[in-house]
Amino acid sequence: MENIYAKRIEEIRKLGFDAVIIKGTDPHSSEYPADRWKQVQWVSGFTGEAGDIVVTADHAGLWTDTRYFIQANAQLKGTGIELHKTRVPGEVGIPQWLKSHFPDRRPRVAVDGLCQSIGDIRSLSFCEIIDCPDLLSQLWADRPAIPHTPVEVLNEKTVGMSRHEKISRLRSQLEAKGCKGILIGSLDEIAWLLNVRGEDIDYNPYVISYLIVTTKRTVWFVRNVDEVPQIEGVVKAGYGSLADGIEDLKGCGRIMIDPSTVNFSVYKTLKSALGEDNLKFEKSPVAPYKAVKNEKEIEGFRKAFLEDGIAMENFLYWLENEVASGSKITEWDASVRLTELRSRIKGYRGNSFGNISAYGPNAALPHYSTPVENSDLIRKKGLYLVDSGGHYEYGTTDITRTVPMGRCTRSEKEDYTLVLKGMIDLSMAVFPEGTAGCQIDALARRPLWEAKKNFGHGTGHGIGFFSGVHEGPQDIRQNFNPMPLLPGMVTSNEPGLYREGKYGIRHENVLLCREHGKSEYGRFFSFETLTLCHIDRGAIIRRLLSKEERRWLNAYNRTVRKKLSPHLESEVAKWLRKKTRRI
């Protein structure tokens, strides 16, 4: 029987282009697209959150990063699609691969320009680009429609800043750059600027839309205009009328666009209406502005992690006792229980991503997708990993805990401890003003590197306020990113280690960058740990922890106990006291 995905590849080849590029994103460069734009999944069966496909007459390839290598190898079997590895030494990206595949001519490359950023297309300047918006619609008979869900307007008291203040500051930044306006395609930036939220994308509280801000007007291009609340100072227009909105910009002056988030089809419309000289290509000033949380947002984050920590402790108590008693608890059962506990929290607005509930070998897949049916039983031995988070009207959380379910091997204990050392060492960091995340990433990796071990994913990502669980522009990873860490930024700290076919370990807390003090050498920053959930001592090899690391761990677990115990039932509080004893 012919593989359905192999058949789809052949249908794409019949379109007659030298190459077709299919991106794993949407018209807004979203990390998590709505079902309509899960084009890579439809073509290949690959369900990872990062992946792009190239189809030529004699080759089909999927490009994805280290988080998904094991998953991709399994899901691509029988499709005829070859895995191309990214974020590894010697990687060959799509542009370089196309150059080598067509060395003697300029290939005709078809793209869905709605789902390709300007930056993506610029990297293909040696190709003849054929823009085919909604390219796959001619093959994808039951392709989902563009979603639209009710729009919620957030109270200024919740977010700490009015949309008028945010837009006024944006206008000042545009004027400083010699611009009279900006077209924004990034959904998280639009949600933050307008203080609005929706549910158009799973796990992301966004409204699919575009926004044009000029010195005189703010125009929001959104679906189902009549159902969207009227917002003071904001003109509503139909999502499909963006081209008309662009025409209205004629004579306005120079317009800023971010080439990493504005799609190629929109860019062509802008260029045709305004001319290239009236476009300024620059990173959006909104991203770094919203990454620095105000005092109200920080207060909300602290509340979110307190409430989330209560749910996590109740979950871990339940899980340990159920498994120890012999109950047949699967990974899916555990995931459902955790979501149910979070859903009881006042202000809960859904999970911030799909729970990663993984036992034993499954945890070796950093972004394991827990199956609803036939998921593995959690047994009374080895390690269980749960990576999860929640959206609340006052903040967003992300936490990973790896816990021993019983007897662990020497290897499991050693790796558990080395990963923990890295997480603690980064938590204790003190660094001068101007330091970027890539400059302190090694703190989390040093204990692993010394043991000749490593992990392939980043150590930390920014987190939004009742927004995307992954937020830039800051991060903590080896890739060079010059964005400095600033007081008010909220960033994850999640080193890991993965042994294919055996187990996976990740410890994740979320950090708030804060002022540490001044000296004759300048300002220094450090981190406050926002996450509140104990770190299990059961798999720790004590001698591998330094005195300072033990002191940090004891202090952290003591803080967790003091803050959470008053909110727990007596038997759970008693259990937590045992779990947080000094080491």
- Based on DSSP secondary structure assignment, what is the total number of beta strands? 28
- pLDDT averaged residue by residue: 96
Helix content: 25-40%
Round the Cα radius of gyration to an integer and report it: 24 Å
CATH topology of the largest domain: Creatine Amidinohydrolase
The major beta sheet can be summarized as: 6 strands, mixed
Proportion of residues in extended strands: 15-25%
CATH architecture of the largest domain: Alpha-Beta Complex
- CATH class category label of the largest domain: Alpha Beta
Q: What is the count of DSSP helices, taking H or I runs of 4+ residues?
A: 17
Query: How many structural domains?
Result: 3
Task: Return the structural class.
Answer: alpha+beta
Main attributes of the structure:
583 residues; 32% helix; single chain; Creatine Amidinohydrolase, Chain A, domain 1; 17 helices; alpha+beta; 6-stranded mixed beta sheet; 3 domains; Creatine Amidinohydrolase; globular
